[in-house]
Model the fold of this input.
Amino acid sequence: MPTLIPLARRTRTRAAAMTVFPTPVSVPVISSPRMEMLLEQFVYHLIEMGLAHADKRYIWHPYTQMKDWKKWDNRVIVGGKGFYLIDNEGRRYLDGIASMWCNVWGHGKNEIVSKMSEQLRTLQHSTLFGLANAPSITLAEKLLKLSRGMQSVFYSDNGSTAVEVAMKMAVQYWRNKRKPKKTHFIALEHGYHGDTLGAMSLGYIAKYFRAYKPILTKVYRAPSPWDKSPSAKSKDNLVNSCIEKTERIIVKYGYGCAALVM
Done:
């Protein structure tokens, strides 16, 4: 951040406390008045620049050609109410994709937000690595009542890492069964599962992921029963054809595959 170099003086910051959990993890708790001053100055600096200009200077947006982004008149969202987003000029936009599927309950005060605020006042975060906590236990119990056939819950923080966790579980399962060669996967064409390495491997979309193909894991593609405008008869034929092709793939490659991802 070149514009902030004058503010970035050397500070001798020491840990105000050191917390050691039952597992061998040490977490320093930093207390530095100079750091607080630096962050405060940074906020003032952004206000003076203007949010839209500061965004173009400091933020690298996902799946975005930044040369084009810097030419556009971009919207800067500063608030939300109900199912609408509000930009820094007071304009309202219907949040039709629920902020990329992460906020289906809407913005502002509601039952979900109230529960989140209540939980933050009680316990902001506690790891499950070597510890248990009450909210995770309560939620797991409720989820399992809704999920028939499931026996336990493994938490993850987003869709992509949930896919990665599932892949690791499948590989580990077969390794525990003394079949360590079952490390590949079968996935449907036209699927999308996220943009981490494992998720990109399963939901490979050449337009977005071609550059990363050399580092992706081996996945066999099963045909997807997807057509833009099939008739009822042709749709049945398409589905049956896909099932037959998928069966052949499983017979041919199943010995080395850990799972089929739908």
User: Anything to note?
Assistant: Residues 81 and 107 are 5 Å apart (CA to CA). The first strand starts at residue 15 and ends at 20.
